[in-house]
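Translate structure to sequence.
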């Protein structure tokens, strides 16, 4: 056995030995219950893995082309690592939430019940506003110089969504109500599991100076932030959009994704995908794996990586936006590169969706989850009603 093969064997062995007995008992990864998002950080002599789920998470990743797996409980796991060189390349493959055996048992920690009203107040989850969209000044009111206000009552759900918005007062009536309701329906708050719905009130003031072009300021001096502007920009994509290659439909944008360059590392080929359209997209991909995942599909998504693929050189690259996901609202980063790892001489598939196309993104999420781990002989197109694209 040569030195490189020996070192690789030792590293792989270390990755499995470092799984704690607690993780082995708690995590039943024969049953996958959800997808998750994870980050892997290589330190001096260890690898730190963070999952956005506190339940059992199975995280598959590559370091310099070598496959590793980690069972993460309570959101964090640390594994030993034998450093092979400076700046090792880390590539996330997948993050899956496993059945947690501890969930059906007695909780590991039983919280003490609050004994005073002050304690109850401190333990109430904080309700912070993540997205605030200002209403548009109606053109008819702007041209007539009409000013006024609208007061709105609305409910914030545990997922941070706004529901049941109603106008409680308006002056003058019949002018600003609809634009105020349309704006507040797009507001989003922090999510907190188990939190009761909260009823809030807000007042929008419409001043003549706002009709000149600037959006009206909400009471308390709240103005549209840079993130809000990015959200408004990204939400304007999609309808009747065209690219240099012609019109693109509003649902599936597979033709926007192209292979920019690929790197052959021997056992593994790393493909860099790019977006050739003007519209940001979420990409869900499945490729034939390597090592212990040989002849099986390994799936990943830019949604789990909390990134949105945009055209190279787009002004959005590096910026962030708040987008809706099943768990509520999360922060995403605009990127111009998306990497897919596959075994040599194999193919990969993908599904690309508009960021605001919930049906397409839901199909992509379900497709990647159902395909992950299946034999490579399974046809990916048979596992989704959406049309998926194939490598060329």
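Result:
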């Amino acid at each position: 056995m040569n030195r490189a093969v020996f070192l690789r064997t030792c590293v792989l062995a270390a990755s499995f030995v470092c799984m704690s007995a607690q993780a082995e008992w708690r995590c039943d990864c024969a049953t996958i219950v959800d997808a998750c998002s994870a980050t892997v950080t290589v330190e001096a002599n260890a690898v730190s893995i963070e999952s956005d789920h506190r339940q059992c998470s199975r995280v598959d990743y590559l370091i310099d082309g070598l496959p590793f797996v980690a069972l993460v409980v309570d959101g964090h796991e640390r594994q030993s690592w034998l450093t092979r060189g400076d700046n090792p390349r880390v590539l996330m493959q997948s993050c899956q939430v496993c059945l947690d055996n501890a969930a059906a048992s007695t909780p590991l920690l039983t919280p003490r019940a609050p004994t005073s009203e002050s304690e109850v107040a401190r333990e109430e989850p904080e309700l912070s506003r993540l997205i605030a969209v200002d209403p548009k000044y109606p053109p008819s009111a702007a041209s007539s110089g009409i000013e006024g206000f609208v007061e709105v009552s609305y409910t914030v759900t545990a997922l941070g969504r706004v529901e049941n918005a109603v106008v409680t007062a308006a002056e003058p009536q019949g002018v600003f109500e609809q634009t105020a309701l349309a704006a507040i329906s797009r507001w989003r708050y922090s999510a907190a599991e188990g939190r009761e719905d909260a009823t809030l009130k807000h007042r929008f003031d419409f001043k003549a100076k706002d009709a000149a072009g600037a959006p009206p300021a909400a009471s308390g001096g709240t103005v549209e932030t840079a993130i809000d502007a990015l959200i408004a920009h990204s939400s304007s994509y999609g309808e009747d959009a065209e690219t240099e290659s012609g019109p693109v439909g509003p649902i599936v944008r597979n033709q926007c994704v192209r292979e920019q360059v690929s790197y052959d590392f021997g056992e593994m080929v790393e493909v860099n995908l790019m977006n050739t359209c003007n519209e940001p997209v979420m990409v869900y991909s499945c490729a034939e794996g390597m090592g212990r995942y040989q002849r099986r599909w390994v799936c990943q998504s830019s949604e789990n990586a909390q990134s949105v693929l945009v055209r190279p050189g787009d002004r959005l690259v590096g910026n962030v936006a708040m987008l809706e996901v099943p768990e509520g609202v999360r922060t995403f980063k605009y990127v111009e590169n998306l990497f897919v790892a596959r075994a040599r001489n194999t193919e990969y598939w993908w599904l690309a969706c508009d960021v605001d196309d919930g049906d397409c993104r839901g199909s992509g999420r379900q497709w990647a989850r159902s395909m992950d781990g299946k034999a490579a002989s399974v046809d990916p197109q048979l596992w989704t009603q959406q049309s998926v694209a194939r490598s060329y």
